[in-house]
Amino acid sequence: MLEIRLRQCGNCVILDLSGRIDVDAANLVEVVGQCVRDGYLDVLCNLEDVAVIDYMGVSVVVIAYKELINHQGRMKFVNIPAHLLGVFAISGMDRTIEIYASEDLALNSFKEDKAIENIKRMQLRRRFKRLPIDLKIELKSKQGGLSECLKVEMLNLSAIGAFIFGCNKFKLQDEVTLKMILAPSSEELELEARVVWIPDKGIQLHEYPGIGVEFSHLSAENQQKLIEFIDRNISLSPSD
């Protein structure tokens, strides 16, 4: 039987595992799922006191690992006993997961990951300018159905996303389709996007109702059209 003890270190949850990781270790998946629901997406599994892991147990670990990855989280491993490393090697898991020799090294790796992510995010913001604009667009659910907002206003635009005002029919992670015309072209541009931000009515009333979207499956050609449109209009805008 697998026993799990939880500890917290900052935004990271440490799972101290002991016993057996086998077909009866579904509680690992349940615990990781609860971590996700509670908003903890960095999980460190300490296997120091695990006596046995079989191939069914590896499948349990994979399910728990995917649960975090699917929610943009991370699962790392520490203190894997030598007699268990062979199972991870034969299954190929040692080429997928991150294994650390000490808890301090593992915890620091989470911080390093976040620092790298912040640098990449800043670089992305510098690369793609954001254009304030009042542009009428058509917005509807990618899946079809009743979720649509026709002729709403796009208030700002970048080559990676946009803020759209006047629609409250969508929720976070919804996939949407935007249709717009970028003057002076008469061509209708259709873009796929995902809802990544919804303003809070209580504290962001001037931006409500609205949604922030991130473009997805954006072709290089369409992204170049956005960049050229933004650059052309920024150059025409009066300077401060």
Please explain how this structure is put together.
This protein is an alpha+beta fold. The chain has two domains: 2-123, 2-Layer Sandwich (Transcription Regulator spoIIAA); 131-236, Beta Barrel (Thrombin, subunit H). The chain is built from five helices and eleven strands. The chain has helices at 27-37, 55-69, 82-91, 103-127, 220-236; strands at residues 2-9, 12-21, 42-53, 74-78, 98-100, 131-141, 148-157, 161-165, 175-181, 188-197, 210-216. It has a six-stranded antiparallel beta barrel. 22% of the residues are buried.
Please give the structural blueprint.
Blueprint: E1 2-9, E2 12-21, H1 27-37, E3 42-53, H2 55-69, E4 74-78, H3 82-91, E5 98-100, H4 103-127, E6 131-141, E7 148-157, E8 161-165, E9 175-181, E10 188-197, E11 210-216, H5 220-236
Parallel strand pairs: 2-3, 3-4, 4-5
Antiparallel strand pairs: 1-2, 6-7, 6-9, 7-8, 8-11, 9-10, 10-11
Helix pairs in contact: 1-2
